[in-house]
Amino acid sequence: MNLAHTTVLLWVWGSLQAFEIVEKENIFQRTPCPAFLMFDNAAYLADMSFELPCHCKPEEVSAVVWYYQKHLGSSHTKVLTDFDGRVLTEESQVHVGSDMLVRFSIRMFSLLVFRAQPEDSGLYFCGTRKGDYFYAYDVDIQSGEGMVATFKDQGQEPFADEHHGSLHIFTTFWEWTPCDRCGVRGEQWRIGLCYLQSPGLSPRYRKTLPEVVSCGSQAVPRKLRAQAREHSPELLVQSCVVPCEKKKVGEGVMAILSYVSKVGSRPWLPQVPIQFHQQRLGHGLIISCPGARPEHAVAWDKDREYFYRTQYLRGVNRSMRVFIDHGNHLHIRFTQLSDRGIYYCWRQGVRVAGLRLGVMSRGRYRASFSDPETRSAVELTLVGYLFITAVFVTIHLCRCCCYLFRCCPNFSP
Q: Which UniProt keyword terms apply here (predicted)?
């Protein structure tokens, strides 16, 4: 009897649990979409990639279509789909400056936009092919051109909040990144985007806090948006030190090293994959860290020299020849012979790649209009010719006017 009672109780408990799970799934499926379309506010920094989930859709809809409008009610609407719900592109295939129609992807009803630009700010709708909308977002992409860097180790403080009557403009910081290096002194930072608080915001836009949205949101009236335009994003940087995690070397590698060390000198083995690149003397170079994004903790070294943002961040010194931009790219302007060496890249506190840079002082170089320096040389030449032509024409026009009105002095004897 005890065994029978136990079996019955277990069966009843399992049935109730299964009924509870099915009931939850049915409740989720029966959740209706809102009758009045609202917009979720979301802000990102330029060159970031973001994902917009379609939280609400009817059960019979098997593939969603995403729409984009610059302003609410705009007659020009972009359709972001291939009408089959397939993956359209990968982030590694996206080039900087590409149109948004080749920088998006749809996966499991969610819209992914790669390397977003300020021009991508606007309204995104999740709906059907017929144009029925289920869910919507108000996306604000803030430019990093005027980003202000604040170094905590130097005693600097972020910008103070601005108050213009009932308008409150402030910076909302993200969480600190991991330390960008391990075993040595590194840096970590947090990105701050512009937000404002005002009682005159549109009620159609859903806010995380009451009357608080990002500065470029469609909920902000034009007058208030113009006042908040001068409040640029901020970057807060501070030093950090973390130990490195020990990695075990494989037995096969250790056997090869021990054999080589017995035969002769131990060879140099790179700890990370290293690429080789030849750069012409005097030309510029931009190096990217593989797999890194603007929100990642990225650091750069040259051999045993560490490039810290307190000295090499873009905007710290206008005359910098080597600097790091806000997208974590390393720039070398006017390459010199002293730039030869191995440049290492750290991502999220782990050294991931290296670039052995060689500088060619001589050799043939094919001029191409895709080269920015070639375009600059052609532009300067054309401007010089136009200036000389303008001076020549001006002198002759003056001589003609003087001859017609007989106001020129006569130097003939």
A: Glycoprotein, Membrane, Signal, Transmembrane, Transmembrane helix
Please name which of 304, 329, 302 lies closest in space to residue 314, comparing C-alpha atoms: 329
* DSSP code per residue over 242-295: -PPPP-PPPHHHHHHHHHHHHHSSPPP--SS-EEEEEEETT--EEE--TT--TT
Please list, in sequence order, all residues whose beta carbon lies within 8 angstroms of the beta carbon of residue 4, skipping any fewer than 6 positions away. none
Q: Global pTM?
A: 0.69
pLDDT by 10-residue block (mean), the chain, 413 residues: 50 46 40 76 89 83 85 82 50 52 78 88 89 89 87 90 90 93 92 90 82 90 83 92 76 54 55 88 88 88 92 83 89 90 93 91 59 72 91 89 68 49
Backbone angles phi, psi at 173, to 5 degrees: -90, 145
| Maximal CA-CA distance, the chain | 143
Please report, for the chain, the start and end positions of each structural domain, with discontinuous segments joined by +. 39-142, 148-241, 271-360, 370-413
- pLDDT score, position 12: 45
- Placement of tokens 């719900």 in the chain: 85
Q: Tell me the β-bridge partners of 241.
A: 185
| Cα gap 64→57, rounded to integer Å | 8
Topology given in CATH for the domain delimited by 39-142: Immunoglobulin-like (2.60.40)
CATH H superfamily, domain 271-360: Immunoglobulins (2.60.40.10)
In b/e form, how buried is each residue of 223-244, taking b as 16+ CB within 10 angstroms?
A: ebeebbeebbbbbbbbebebee
Q: Are 65 and 83 in contact (CB under 8 A)?
A: yes
Q: Is 53 helix (H, G, I), strand (E, B) or coil?
A: coil
Are 82 and 136 in contact by the 8 Å Cβ rule? The answer is no
Phi and psi at residue 69, in whole multiples of 5°?
Answer: -130, 140
